[in-house]
Amino acid sequence: MPRILFIVPSDYDALVKKGVAGMILERSEGGLFERVVTVHPAAARTRVIDLDPVHVLHEVGLDLYGALARRRLFRVLLAPLQLARVLWLCLRLVRSERIDLIRATDPFWCGLVALIVARLCGRPWCVSIHADYDHKLKHSGRGESHTLFGFSSPARLVSRMVLSRAGLVLPIRESLRLWALDHGAPPHKVRLIPHGTDSALLAAQACHDVRALLGIPASRRIISFVGRLSPINYLDDVLQATRTLSLRRDDFCLVIAGGGELEERLRGELEADRRLGALVRMVGFQPRGVCFALRRESTASLCLMGGFSLIEACLAGRPVISFDVDWHEELVQNGRTGFLLPEGDVDGVVRALERCLDDPSTAHLGEQARTLALSRHELRDTSRIKRRCYQELLDR
User: What's the pTM?
Assistant: First the structure.
Protein backbone atom coordinates (compact mmCIF):
# COMPACT_ATOMS: atom_id res chain seq x y z
CA MET A 1 0.00 0.00 0.00
CA PRO A 2 1.29 3.51 -0.82
CA ARG A 3 2.42 6.16 1.64
CA ILE A 4 1.83 9.90 1.28
CA LEU A 5 3.43 13.07 2.65
CA PHE A 6 1.22 16.15 3.11
CA ILE A 7 2.75 19.62 3.50
CA VAL A 8 0.07 21.85 5.04
CA PRO A 9 0.24 25.49 6.27
CA SER A 10 -1.53 24.87 9.57
CA ASP A 11 -1.08 24.21 13.29
CA TYR A 12 -2.55 21.28 15.20
CA ASP A 13 -3.67 23.30 18.24
CA ALA A 14 -5.51 25.74 15.97
CA LEU A 15 -7.28 22.83 14.24
CA VAL A 16 -8.29 21.36 17.61
CA LYS A 17 -9.63 24.72 18.76
CA LYS A 18 -11.72 24.99 15.61
CA GLY A 19 -13.00 21.46 16.09
CA VAL A 20 -11.72 20.18 12.74
CA ALA A 21 -8.60 18.23 13.76
CA GLY A 22 -10.45 14.97 13.21
CA MET A 23 -10.61 15.73 9.50
CA ILE A 24 -6.89 14.96 9.27
CA LEU A 25 -7.82 11.28 9.55
CA GLU A 26 -9.75 11.52 6.28
CA ARG A 27 -6.47 11.88 4.38
CA SER A 28 -6.00 8.11 4.25
CA GLU A 29 -8.97 8.08 1.83
CA GLY A 30 -10.69 5.03 3.22
CA GLY A 31 -7.59 2.89 3.46
CA LEU A 32 -5.88 3.81 0.19
CA PHE A 33 -2.76 4.86 2.10
CA GLU A 34 -0.92 2.68 4.57
CA ARG A 35 0.79 5.72 6.12
CA VAL A 36 -0.10 9.43 6.07
CA VAL A 37 2.62 11.82 7.22
CA THR A 38 1.73 15.51 7.58
CA VAL A 39 4.21 18.36 8.01
CA HIS A 40 3.14 21.77 9.34
CA PRO A 41 5.98 24.10 8.22
CA ALA A 42 5.31 27.06 10.54
CA ALA A 43 3.54 25.78 13.65
CA ALA A 44 3.70 27.38 17.09
CA ARG A 45 6.00 24.69 18.49
CA THR A 46 8.18 21.84 17.28
CA ARG A 47 6.80 18.37 18.03
CA VAL A 48 5.70 15.02 16.65
CA ILE A 49 2.10 13.88 17.21
CA ASP A 50 1.04 10.29 16.56
CA LEU A 51 -2.70 10.49 15.87
CA ASP A 52 -3.13 6.77 15.24
CA PRO A 53 -1.10 3.94 13.63
CA VAL A 54 -1.64 5.48 10.19
CA HIS A 55 -1.43 9.25 10.74
CA VAL A 56 1.49 11.20 12.20
CA LEU A 57 2.08 14.98 12.37
CA HIS A 58 5.46 16.71 12.34
CA GLU A 59 5.28 20.37 13.31
CA VAL A 60 8.24 22.63 12.58
CA GLY A 61 7.77 25.28 15.22
CA LEU A 62 8.62 28.94 15.42
CA ASP A 63 9.36 28.39 19.12
CA LEU A 64 13.02 27.86 18.18
CA TYR A 65 13.32 31.62 17.69
CA GLY A 66 11.76 32.64 21.00
CA ALA A 67 10.35 36.16 21.26
CA LEU A 68 11.68 37.06 17.81
CA ALA A 69 8.94 34.94 16.22
CA ARG A 70 6.31 37.36 17.51
CA ARG A 71 7.63 40.17 15.31
CA ARG A 72 6.74 40.10 11.62
CA LEU A 73 10.06 41.63 10.49
CA PHE A 74 12.07 38.95 12.24
CA ARG A 75 9.81 36.21 10.87
CA VAL A 76 10.59 37.47 7.38
CA LEU A 77 14.33 37.54 8.11
CA LEU A 78 14.19 34.05 9.61
CA ALA A 79 12.21 32.62 6.68
CA PRO A 80 15.26 31.16 4.84
CA LEU A 81 16.28 29.28 7.99
CA GLN A 82 12.74 27.99 8.48
CA LEU A 83 12.62 26.86 4.86
CA ALA A 84 15.88 24.95 5.32
CA ARG A 85 14.53 23.25 8.46
CA VAL A 86 11.36 22.16 6.65
CA LEU A 87 13.27 20.90 3.62
CA TRP A 88 15.65 18.87 5.78
CA LEU A 89 12.77 17.31 7.71
CA CYS A 90 10.81 16.43 4.57
CA LEU A 91 13.85 14.90 2.85
CA ARG A 92 14.47 12.77 5.93
CA LEU A 93 10.81 11.74 6.18
CA VAL A 94 10.59 10.69 2.52
CA ARG A 95 13.39 8.20 3.18
CA SER A 96 12.53 7.05 6.70
CA GLU A 97 8.77 6.76 6.06
CA ARG A 98 9.24 5.31 2.54
CA ILE A 99 6.98 7.97 1.01
CA ASP A 100 5.53 7.24 -2.44
CA LEU A 101 3.61 10.48 -3.12
CA ILE A 102 3.79 14.12 -1.99
CA ARG A 103 0.95 16.65 -1.81
CA ALA A 104 1.28 20.33 -0.95
CA THR A 105 -1.82 22.28 -0.01
CA ASP A 106 -0.79 25.69 -1.32
CA PRO A 107 1.35 26.78 -4.30
CA PHE A 108 3.64 29.03 -2.26
CA TRP A 109 5.87 27.82 0.60
CA CYS A 110 4.32 24.37 0.75
CA GLY A 111 4.40 23.99 -3.01
CA LEU A 112 8.03 25.10 -3.17
CA VAL A 113 9.01 22.53 -0.55
CA ALA A 114 7.10 19.79 -2.36
CA LEU A 115 8.72 20.67 -5.69
CA ILE A 116 12.26 20.59 -4.28
CA VAL A 117 11.79 17.41 -2.23
CA ALA A 118 10.03 15.58 -5.06
CA ARG A 119 12.79 16.47 -7.52
CA LEU A 120 15.58 15.44 -5.14
CA CYS A 121 13.89 12.19 -4.15
CA GLY A 122 12.28 11.29 -7.47
CA ARG A 123 8.71 11.09 -6.15
CA PRO A 124 5.44 12.08 -7.89
CA TRP A 125 3.75 15.13 -6.40
CA CYS A 126 0.74 17.36 -6.65
CA VAL A 127 -0.49 20.66 -5.28
CA SER A 128 -4.03 21.49 -4.20
CA ILE A 129 -5.56 24.97 -4.41
CA HIS A 130 -7.81 25.95 -1.50
CA ALA A 131 -8.40 29.69 -1.96
CA ASP A 132 -8.34 32.61 -4.34
CA TYR A 133 -5.16 33.92 -2.75
CA ASP A 134 -5.34 37.25 -4.59
CA HIS A 135 -8.82 37.92 -3.19
CA LYS A 136 -7.73 36.76 0.25
CA LEU A 137 -4.72 39.08 0.33
CA LYS A 138 -6.74 42.01 -1.00
CA HIS A 139 -9.39 41.76 1.73
CA SER A 140 -7.30 40.67 4.71
CA GLY A 141 -4.10 42.62 4.11
CA ARG A 142 -2.30 39.57 5.46
CA GLY A 143 -0.74 36.41 4.18
CA GLU A 144 2.90 35.94 5.11
CA SER A 145 2.66 32.37 3.85
CA HIS A 146 1.78 33.85 0.44
CA THR A 147 4.93 35.99 0.20
CA LEU A 148 8.54 35.01 -0.33
CA PHE A 149 10.86 36.58 2.24
CA GLY A 150 8.26 39.31 2.72
CA PHE A 151 7.72 40.12 -0.96
CA SER A 152 4.67 39.23 -3.03
CA SER A 153 6.24 39.41 -6.52
CA PRO A 154 8.70 36.54 -5.94
CA ALA A 155 5.86 34.55 -4.38
CA ARG A 156 3.81 34.95 -7.55
CA LEU A 157 6.76 33.67 -9.59
CA VAL A 158 7.12 30.70 -7.24
CA SER A 159 3.44 29.87 -7.52
CA ARG A 160 3.63 29.89 -11.32
CA MET A 161 6.66 27.62 -11.20
CA VAL A 162 4.93 25.25 -8.77
CA LEU A 163 1.69 25.13 -10.75
CA SER A 164 3.46 24.58 -14.08
CA ARG A 165 5.66 21.74 -12.78
CA ALA A 166 3.38 19.79 -10.45
CA GLY A 167 2.27 16.35 -11.58
CA LEU A 168 -1.34 17.37 -10.98
CA VAL A 169 -2.98 20.61 -9.84
CA LEU A 170 -6.03 19.98 -7.67
CA PRO A 171 -8.40 22.93 -7.09
CA ILE A 172 -11.13 22.21 -4.56
CA ARG A 173 -13.83 24.07 -6.51
CA GLU A 174 -14.61 25.20 -10.03
CA SER A 175 -13.76 28.88 -9.50
CA LEU A 176 -10.28 27.87 -8.33
CA ARG A 177 -9.77 25.85 -11.50
CA LEU A 178 -9.88 29.19 -13.32
CA TRP A 179 -7.48 30.71 -10.78
CA ALA A 180 -5.02 27.85 -11.30
CA LEU A 181 -5.18 28.19 -15.10
CA ASP A 182 -4.68 31.95 -14.88
CA HIS A 183 -1.60 31.40 -12.73
CA GLY A 184 0.23 28.94 -14.92
CA ALA A 185 -1.30 25.49 -14.44
CA PRO A 186 -1.39 23.46 -17.70
CA PRO A 187 -5.04 22.60 -18.46
CA HIS A 188 -4.29 18.90 -18.96
CA LYS A 189 -2.92 18.65 -15.40
CA VAL A 190 -5.91 20.17 -13.60
CA ARG A 191 -8.34 17.91 -11.73
CA LEU A 192 -11.21 19.13 -9.53
CA ILE A 193 -11.29 17.59 -6.01
CA PRO A 194 -14.30 19.00 -4.12
CA HIS A 195 -14.18 19.23 -0.36
CA GLY A 196 -16.10 16.41 1.26
CA THR A 197 -17.82 15.95 4.58
CA ASP A 198 -19.36 12.95 6.28
CA SER A 199 -22.89 14.28 6.69
CA ALA A 200 -24.00 11.40 8.93
CA LEU A 201 -21.06 11.91 11.30
CA LEU A 202 -21.65 15.67 11.33
CA ALA A 203 -25.29 15.16 12.25
CA ALA A 204 -24.30 12.74 15.02
CA GLN A 205 -21.87 15.32 16.46
CA ALA A 206 -24.63 17.95 16.51
CA CYS A 207 -26.63 16.44 19.41
CA HIS A 208 -26.59 19.69 21.40
CA ASP A 209 -29.34 21.92 22.75
CA VAL A 210 -27.62 25.10 21.61
CA ARG A 211 -30.21 27.39 23.15
CA ALA A 212 -29.52 25.92 26.58
CA LEU A 213 -25.78 25.67 25.94
CA LEU A 214 -25.39 29.27 24.74
CA GLY A 215 -28.19 30.86 26.76
CA ILE A 216 -30.43 31.91 23.84
CA PRO A 217 -34.09 32.37 24.90
CA ALA A 218 -36.79 30.58 22.89
CA SER A 219 -38.41 33.95 22.15
CA ARG A 220 -35.47 35.02 19.99
CA ARG A 221 -34.97 33.47 16.58
CA ILE A 222 -31.33 32.77 15.82
CA ILE A 223 -29.30 34.28 13.00
CA SER A 224 -25.89 32.63 12.98
CA PHE A 225 -22.42 33.52 11.80
CA VAL A 226 -19.82 30.76 12.11
CA GLY A 227 -16.28 31.47 11.00
CA ARG A 228 -13.05 33.28 11.62
CA LEU A 229 -13.40 36.87 12.81
CA SER A 230 -11.31 38.25 9.97
CA PRO A 231 -11.86 41.13 7.51
CA ILE A 232 -12.15 38.68 4.62
CA ASN A 233 -15.40 37.38 6.14
CA TYR A 234 -17.12 40.80 5.92
CA LEU A 235 -17.68 41.16 9.67
CA ASP A 236 -18.27 44.92 9.29
CA ASP A 237 -21.12 44.18 6.89
CA VAL A 238 -22.51 41.55 9.27
CA LEU A 239 -22.60 44.05 12.13
CA GLN A 240 -23.98 46.87 9.97
CA ALA A 241 -26.83 44.67 8.73
CA THR A 242 -27.57 43.59 12.29
CA ARG A 243 -27.49 47.20 13.51
CA THR A 244 -30.00 48.22 10.83
CA LEU A 245 -32.24 45.26 11.64
CA SER A 246 -32.08 46.04 15.37
CA LEU A 247 -33.67 49.44 14.71
CA ARG A 248 -36.71 47.70 13.25
CA ARG A 249 -37.20 44.67 15.50
CA ASP A 250 -35.84 42.80 18.51
CA ASP A 251 -37.18 39.28 18.01
CA PHE A 252 -33.84 37.82 16.92
CA CYS A 253 -30.37 37.10 18.24
CA LEU A 254 -27.24 37.12 16.10
CA VAL A 255 -24.90 34.42 17.41
CA ILE A 256 -21.27 34.84 16.33
CA ALA A 257 -19.23 31.66 16.78
CA GLY A 258 -15.53 31.98 16.08
CA GLY A 259 -12.42 33.91 16.99
CA GLY A 260 -9.77 35.94 15.25
CA GLU A 261 -8.03 39.27 14.94
CA LEU A 262 -11.28 41.29 14.94
CA GLU A 263 -12.68 39.78 18.13
CA GLU A 264 -11.55 42.51 20.54
CA ARG A 265 -12.74 45.30 18.24
CA LEU A 266 -16.13 43.67 17.72
CA ARG A 267 -16.65 43.22 21.45
CA GLY A 268 -15.82 46.89 21.91
CA GLU A 269 -18.42 47.92 19.35
CA LEU A 270 -21.07 45.82 21.07
CA GLU A 271 -20.25 47.34 24.44
CA ALA A 272 -20.52 50.84 22.96
CA ASP A 273 -23.90 50.17 21.33
CA ARG A 274 -26.24 48.83 24.02
CA ARG A 275 -29.13 48.16 21.64
CA LEU A 276 -26.94 46.18 19.28
CA GLY A 277 -25.14 44.44 22.14
CA ALA A 278 -28.45 43.16 23.52
CA LEU A 279 -29.15 41.34 20.25
CA VAL A 280 -25.70 39.89 19.52
CA ARG A 281 -24.04 37.02 21.37
CA MET A 282 -20.33 36.33 20.77
CA VAL A 283 -19.60 32.80 21.91
CA GLY A 284 -16.01 32.31 20.71
CA PHE A 285 -14.69 29.15 19.10
CA GLN A 286 -17.05 26.22 19.44
CA PRO A 287 -16.62 22.53 18.52
CA ARG A 288 -17.72 21.55 15.06
CA GLY A 289 -20.77 19.68 16.35
CA VAL A 290 -21.97 22.70 18.34
CA CYS A 291 -21.53 24.93 15.29
CA PHE A 292 -23.58 22.55 13.14
CA ALA A 293 -26.28 22.35 15.80
CA LEU A 294 -26.30 26.17 15.91
CA ARG A 295 -26.78 26.36 12.17
CA ARG A 296 -29.62 23.82 12.27
CA GLU A 297 -31.36 25.90 14.97
CA SER A 298 -30.96 29.12 12.95
CA THR A 299 -33.65 30.89 11.00
CA ALA A 300 -30.88 32.01 8.63
CA SER A 301 -27.12 31.56 8.30
CA LEU A 302 -24.97 34.55 7.40
CA CYS A 303 -22.10 33.24 5.30
CA LEU A 304 -21.15 36.32 3.29
CA MET A 305 -17.78 34.69 2.59
CA GLY A 306 -17.15 31.02 3.14
CA GLY A 307 -15.23 27.96 2.06
CA PHE A 308 -15.85 24.79 4.00
CA SER A 309 -18.12 26.81 6.29
CA LEU A 310 -20.47 27.47 3.36
CA ILE A 311 -20.77 23.75 2.68
CA GLU A 312 -21.70 23.06 6.30
CA ALA A 313 -24.12 25.99 6.37
CA CYS A 314 -25.95 24.49 3.39
CA LEU A 315 -25.86 20.98 4.87
CA ALA A 316 -27.63 22.34 7.96
CA GLY A 317 -30.74 22.81 5.83
CA ARG A 318 -31.41 26.44 6.69
CA PRO A 319 -31.50 29.46 4.32
CA VAL A 320 -28.03 30.84 3.63
CA ILE A 321 -27.24 34.48 2.82
CA SER A 322 -24.02 35.06 0.86
CA PHE A 323 -22.27 37.63 -1.27
CA ASP A 324 -21.75 36.77 -4.94
CA VAL A 325 -17.97 36.38 -4.66
CA ASP A 326 -15.46 33.59 -5.07
CA TRP A 327 -17.25 30.25 -5.56
CA HIS A 328 -20.54 30.97 -3.75
CA GLU A 329 -22.74 30.69 -6.84
CA GLU A 330 -21.86 26.99 -7.02
CA LEU A 331 -23.98 26.36 -3.90
CA VAL A 332 -26.04 29.49 -3.25
CA GLN A 333 -28.47 29.93 -6.12
CA ASN A 334 -30.50 33.06 -5.51
CA GLY A 335 -34.14 32.29 -4.79
CA ARG A 336 -33.55 28.54 -5.02
CA THR A 337 -31.06 27.52 -2.33
CA GLY A 338 -30.58 30.85 -0.56
CA PHE A 339 -29.90 34.53 -1.12
CA LEU A 340 -26.93 35.49 -3.31
CA LEU A 341 -26.31 39.23 -3.14
CA PRO A 342 -23.86 41.67 -4.74
CA GLU A 343 -20.70 42.17 -2.68
CA GLY A 344 -21.24 44.88 -0.08
CA ASP A 345 -25.04 44.98 -0.45
CA VAL A 346 -25.83 45.42 3.25
CA ASP A 347 -29.37 46.60 2.54
CA GLY A 348 -29.91 43.39 0.58
CA VAL A 349 -28.68 41.38 3.56
CA VAL A 350 -31.21 43.16 5.78
CA ARG A 351 -34.04 42.47 3.34
CA ALA A 352 -33.07 38.80 3.11
CA LEU A 353 -32.95 38.49 6.91
CA GLU A 354 -36.36 40.12 7.26
CA ARG A 355 -37.81 37.76 4.69
CA CYS A 356 -36.42 34.74 6.56
CA LEU A 357 -37.80 36.05 9.84
CA ASP A 358 -41.23 36.90 8.43
CA ASP A 359 -41.87 34.26 5.78
CA PRO A 360 -41.88 30.61 6.94
CA SER A 361 -41.89 29.44 3.31
CA THR A 362 -38.22 30.45 3.00
CA ALA A 363 -37.42 27.24 4.91
CA HIS A 364 -37.62 25.36 1.61
CA LEU A 365 -34.52 27.25 0.43
CA GLY A 366 -32.51 25.57 3.16
CA GLU A 367 -33.89 22.15 2.26
CA GLN A 368 -32.83 22.61 -1.36
CA ALA A 369 -29.43 23.92 -0.27
CA ARG A 370 -28.89 20.73 1.73
CA THR A 371 -29.87 18.56 -1.24
CA LEU A 372 -27.43 20.39 -3.51
CA ALA A 373 -24.58 20.26 -0.96
CA LEU A 374 -25.07 16.52 -0.44
CA SER A 375 -24.97 15.90 -4.18
CA ARG A 376 -21.59 17.66 -4.51
CA HIS A 377 -19.79 17.27 -1.19
CA GLU A 378 -20.66 13.92 0.40
CA LEU A 379 -17.38 12.45 1.66
CA ARG A 380 -17.72 9.00 0.10
CA ASP A 381 -18.13 10.61 -3.35
CA THR A 382 -15.35 13.18 -3.03
CA SER A 383 -13.01 10.52 -1.64
CA ARG A 384 -13.48 8.44 -4.78
CA ILE A 385 -12.45 11.44 -6.88
CA LYS A 386 -9.27 11.98 -4.86
CA ARG A 387 -8.40 8.29 -4.96
CA ARG A 388 -8.52 8.40 -8.76
CA CYS A 389 -6.19 11.42 -8.82
CA TYR A 390 -3.71 9.83 -6.44
CA GLN A 391 -3.74 6.58 -8.39
CA GLU A 392 -3.10 8.48 -11.61
CA LEU A 393 0.07 9.92 -10.09
CA LEU A 394 1.19 6.62 -8.57
CA ASP A 395 0.74 4.80 -11.89
CA ARG A 396 3.11 7.12 -13.77
Answer: 0.84
Exposed/middle/buried for residue 248 (C-beta within 10 Å: 0-12, 13-18, 19+): exposed
What pLDDT is attached to residue 128? 97
Beta bridge partners of 283: none
Least confident of 163-172, 194-203, 208-217, 237-246: 194-203
User: Which element (helix H / strand E) includes 264?
Assistant: helix 263-272
CB 38 within 8 A of CB 57: yes
Contact 305, 326 (CB under 8 A): yes
Q: What is the pLDDT of residue 66?
A: 78
For the stretch 80-116, pLDDT in tens is 888 999 999 999 999 999 999 999 999 999 999 999 9
Q: What is the mean pLDDT of the chain?
A: 91
* 152: confidence class by pLDDT, cuts 50, 70, 90: low
Judge whether 296 and 363 are in contact, CB under 8 Å: no
Statement to judge: residues 157 and 275 lie in one domain: no
Sheet with strand 221-226: strands edge to edge: 280-284, 252-257, 221-226, 298-302, 320-323, 338-341
The pairing of beta strand 55-61 with beta strand 252-257: unpaired
Indicate if 34 and 151 belong to the same structural domain.
Answer: yes
Residues with Cβ within 8 Å of residue 367, at least 6 apart in sequence? 317
Same domain, 17 and 143: yes
Is residue 168 domain-shared with residue 217, that is, in the same domain?
Answer: no
The DSSP letter of residue 21 is G
CATH code of the domain covering residue 38: 3.40.50.2000
Instruction: Domain of residue 103: give its range.
Output: 3-195+379-394
The answer to whether 306 and 322 are in contact (CB under 8 A) is yes
Q: 103 by DSSP, 3-state: which?
A: strand
Mean pLDDT of the region 110-137? 91
Whole-angstrom Cα distance, residue 27 to residue 83?
Answer: 24
**Nearest in space to 172 (alpha carbons), one of 204, 148, 197:** 197
Structural domain count, the chain: 2
139 shares a domain with 9: yes
What secondary structure letter does DSSP report for 57? E
From residue 11, alpha-carbon distances to 38, 117, 259, 311, 378 in Å are 11, 21, 15, 22, 26
> What pLDDT score was predicted for residue 144?
46
